[in-house]
Design brief:
The complex is a heterodimer.
Chain A lengths: L3 E3 L3 E5 L4 E7 L6 E7 L6 E7 L4 E3 L3 E6 L4 E6 L8 E8 L6 E2 L3 E6 L1
Parallel strand pairs in A: 2-11
Antiparallel strand pairs in A: 1-3, 3-8, 4-5, 4-9, 6-7, 7-8, 9-10, 9-11
Chain B lengths: L4 E3 L2 E4 L5 E6 L6 E7 L6 E7 L2 E5 L6 E5 L5 E5 L8 E8 L9 E2 L3 E5 L1
The chains are: A mainly beta, B mainly beta.
Chain lengths: 111, 114
């Protein structure tokens, strides 16, 4: 079965610092990845995605890095703000119709 | 453009009962996927509906069933509720069956089984 895991269950950062959230995946056939943000009482919100033919993709204040050699995904958030406090999930897809989600990392931004 | 809406937002059921959860997909989306999210865990895929047919299923027993209607809205039915069914149930809509691009999640239905 699929196994998507996160290295750290919790992460605390000072406001204005950069955050890095890591994710390991086990299926080398996975070719599409998404990072989601989930705030308390809400559904997952799309942040950024990346396909396996890319190593890096940038969005507004966020960057996703994909290392297929070691099956590792990371999300970098620049200049972290209090509104970034949430649980972050990575999700993988291998051309099928479902995503496999990791357990999640809880990010707390300290003002 | 409307997003994904789910109803009800919360409900409490007794073990052994049956429950129906509802989802309206985002405008233009014809595919609905359902996920179960236990407390402190990531969402787990239940099944996907595309063109009113089940189009893939995760590791959930048959007492989890669904429907998709011509307007692409969907229902999730759970029979013979068990305590472990307590979770947040999420609906995600997308365009086209198969690999889900443009996944948009609703805010979920919080089900508590007592």
């Amino acid at each position: 079965g699929e196994s998507v895991g996160l290295h750290l269950p919790t992460l605390s950062v000072q406001e204005g610092d950069n955050s890095i959230i890591n994710c390991a995946y086990s299926n080398s056939a996975s070719d599409y990845f998404i990072w989601y943000k989930q705030e308390s009482g809400k559904g997952p919100q799309f942040i950024i995605d990346i396909r396996s033919n890319m190593d890096k993709r940038q969005g507004q204040r966020v960057t996703v890095l994909l290392n297929k050699t070691v099956k590792h995904l990371s999300l970098q958030i620049a200049a972290t703000q209090p509104g970034d406090s949430a649980v972050y999930f990575c999700a993988e897809n291998n051309a099928g119709n479902q995503f496999y989600f990791g357990t999640g990392t809880s990010l707390t931004v300290i003002p | 453009e409307t997003g994904v809406t789910q109803s009800p937002t919360h409900l409490i059921k007794t073990r052994g009962q049956q429950v129906t959860l509802r989802c309206s997909s985002q405008s233009g989306h014809n595919t609905v996927s359902w996920y179960q999210q236990a407390l402190g865990q990531g969402p787990q895929f239940i099944f996907q509906y595309y063109r009113e047919e089940e189009n893939g299923r995760g590791n959930f027993p048959p007492r989890f069933s669904g429907l998709q209607f011509p307007n692409y809205s969907s229902e999730l039915n759970v029979n013979a509720l068990e305590l472990d069914d307590s979770a947040l149930y999420l609906c995600a809509s997308s365009l086209g069956g198969g690999q889900p691009y443009g996944y948009t999640f609703g805010s979920g239905t919080r089900l508590t089984v007592v």
